[in-house]
Structure formats: structure tokens, C-alpha cells
Amino acid sequence: MQYWIGLGSNIGDGPAQITQALNHLESTGLVSVCRRSGCYRSAPWGVLDQPEFTNAVALLESDLGPLSLLDHLQRVEQAMGRRRDERRWGPRVIDLDLLLAGEQILRLKRLVLPHPQLHRRRFVLQPLAELEPDLRIPARGVVRHLLRRLPEQGVRLVSR
Questions:
Q1: Known active-site residue 85
Q2: pLDDT tens track of the chain, all 160 residues?
């Protein structure tokens, strides 16, 4: 199955943290990274008194189901130093969000797909548009159309 994930970091070297997370995901043999976007910088979202974030998206392939992939993403976060007791939307070494699982729509206690804020976050839609501007987000629309509806929000490409 194909999955889209969002990656973010605002502690340390963001682009390096994102690359390390993708390498860690692939090293387990449970996930293949098919494509990844460049890295984008953006102002923090939610909690504003913290450093800027570096964000990217990646397309993965895996035989894992969505909940098993979510568990795998959280194990990688933990291995890289992320603690779940951190404040929501606060600073973090790495954040791995499951955005899409093919065309699936899920409403589970632990996982909602598509990601419930995906269509409101330029820092996710802009890197998605770099890779797949015509990607259809179930129940929301096409990435490039959703992106046009959002304000600029100061998202800028920093590395490919």
C-alpha cells in the first residue's frame, strides 16, 4: 500500500533529522521510501513561542496496515528522542504524521485519515504539491486546489 507521511523538526538540524528519520524507516525493511520532497521552513503552528520548523513529505510503500505503520512511525520518533509527554505542537526533534493511506478514509480513536488538518496546512500541502500536485485527498479535494485557498503562511523551500 502507498502512504504519504509528513515529517517535521525544529530542534537541531531539521533537514538532517528528516533524512535520518527516512533512513531509519527504510533500514527496518518494513517500509520503502519511494519519493520525498525538498525541505521547507515555516513558522510554528499551534504553539508560537518556539523555533521555526523544517517540514517535508514522503511517499512510502509498505505491506503494513495503517495502524501498524502508525506504530512504526512512533517507534522511529522515540528512537530519535521524541517523547510523547511533550506539549502538543511544541518543539520536537522529529514528528512523523501519517497523512494518507491510499484512498482510505478512517475514523478510529488512534488514527484519522486523511489527516484531519492536512487541508489547512500549507507546510504539508506545499511539499505535497512539489511531488504530486494532482493528488486527490479523499473528502477534501486536489492538492493544488487546496493550496490555492490558503494564505502564504511564510512557507519557503530551503533545500532539495
A1: no
A2: 999 999 999 999 999 999 999 999 999 999 999 999 999 999 887 777 889 999 999 999 999 999 999 999 999 999 998 876 656 666 889 999 999 999 999 999 999 999 999 999 999 999 999 999 999 999 999 999 999 999 988 899 999 8
pTM for the predicted model, two decimal places: 0.93
Total count of domains within the chain: 1
Active site (annotated) includes residue 13: no
CA 134 to chain centre: 18
**Residue 42 is part of which domain span?**
2-159
Give the CATH number, domain containing residue 135. 3.30.70.560
110 noted as active-site residue: no
CB of 3 closer than 8 Å to CB of 101: yes
Instruction: Please check whether residue 147 is in contact with residue 125, taking contact to mean a CB–CB distance below 8 angstroms.
Output: yes
